[in-house]
Structure formats: C-alpha cells, structure tokens
Input
Amino acid sequence: MVCKDTLKIKNLPKELSDAHKEDFARHFGASKVKVVTSRVKEKSVVYAKFDSEEYAKSVMFRLHQINVLNCRLCVEYAENDIVQGKPKQKRMEEPDITSKKAFKTFVNKITSFNDSVNFHQPPPSHLKYLYPKANRATINNIVHVLTTIPRFYTQVDIQVHKKIEMKVSSEALLHTPQKEEKPRSIGTIPPKKPEPEKPPSPEKTLVEEKPEEQEDKTAITAEELAANRINHKDLGVLPVFKNYHPGVPTCRLYIKNCAKTVTTKDLEYIYNR
Output
C-alpha cells in the first residue's frame, strides 16, 4: 500500500545535518517529519507527512529531480505512514480447515485402490483395465447415448475417422513398392557460352538500395510495440508484476534487471521513439 499524504525524500546532501533536513521538509509545509539515517551506508531518508494528498502531490512534483548541493533529489510516495512505523509482514492466509478436508477426501477417492477396506493407495502401474466383451445390452446403451447426445456422437465420429485414416495411411506406406534406382549415366557437360556484359543501370542500383535503407531502423515501430505489449489483465496474473504500481511520471527512466545479452543498441532501439 502507498500512503499518498507522506513523501519519501532520498539522496539528500551529506553536508546537511538531521536538523537541517527536518527544517528543509518543514519549509515546504510538512506537518510531521522523520529522518532515518544509516551509519553503514552514510545515507539518510526523510519521511515528510502533509495535511492533504493534493499538497503532497504538488510538493513531490516540485522537489523531484531538483539539484541541491550537486545532489539530485528523488521524491516518491512513502510505503507506510510515519505514525505506523515499519510495515508489518503480512501473514500468509491459511486455507480453511473444511476446504483442506474436502481436498484430502477428493484425493483419497481418486487414488484409492479399494475404498471398501479403507486402503487409500494408488493402483500398481503394471495393472491395466480389461474391458468386458460387448453384449446386446452394452451396445444398446451406447447407441442410445449416441442418439440422445449430439456432442458425444460428433466426438466419437471424429475419433473413429482419425483412427481409420491413420490405419489406411500406415498400410499404404508399408505396401508401396520401392522403385529400383537405376544407375545414371554421367555425360559430358557442354561449355557455356560467355554472355555479353551489360552496363549497370543507375535505376536498378537505386531500387536495390531502398530495402537496405528500410532495414536499418533506428527505433521500434508502433506495430512491433503494440504486438509485444503486455495486457493490463496479465499484470495482476504474472508473478513478476505482483508488486507493480505506476510511479510518478518523470523525464528519466531507471531500467533494472536487464539480461546480460542486452546491449545499448537494444535500449536505444526501444526507447528512441
């Protein structure tokens, strides 16, 4: 969750003390200020809370990416409120006990070899089901189902035709006589007549140079960009975008987790539009 009335100010100059950093945040209208300093990294982060979300948004657009003592500030929304402190880790939601029992009984019913004696184990892998011989009652039942359910009839008809076609094609391949390969006589190849050389026409050279110019693209096209774009519905399904939320629009991009095969030309090809 993002707290829209609290800002997180990073990359402040090291020359400023904690009191100066607090005065800096209060100068822009912050009601509550909290300075968190890391002694190991020698960096500090200022959390500033404002009276309204609109005021915090205007301050963020005003301070983000400005230069203070040769340090460019980075201002964004804080992940939690100053009063709440650090966000607590979310506990994993335990599934309901009834759903666990229902799932266990379902698995036991599927894998049970003999449910009457409470023997819940899968059957041996070497055993196979032996279909009984067809009789009049079984055939009548099958015919009755075929006539009453059109989808079942269509599915059976498709499967039967597939098996017949596979059987016919395999038999045809087995019974095709192999033709005896006759030795080919190698004759003398007559010498080719020398063709007269034609002067190169300037029109053809111009026509041939056009596709090369089209191939050297400096930026990605709109069609390629639309084809490779991820839908908004898939953002909530893919685990990579689980904690994704749109940030503040700026004139600078920070691209992380790039593959080792990515080069500068690839990035310029995508973002040079």
Q: What stands out?
A: The two ends are 33 Å apart (CA to CA). The chain is about 40% helix and 10% strand.
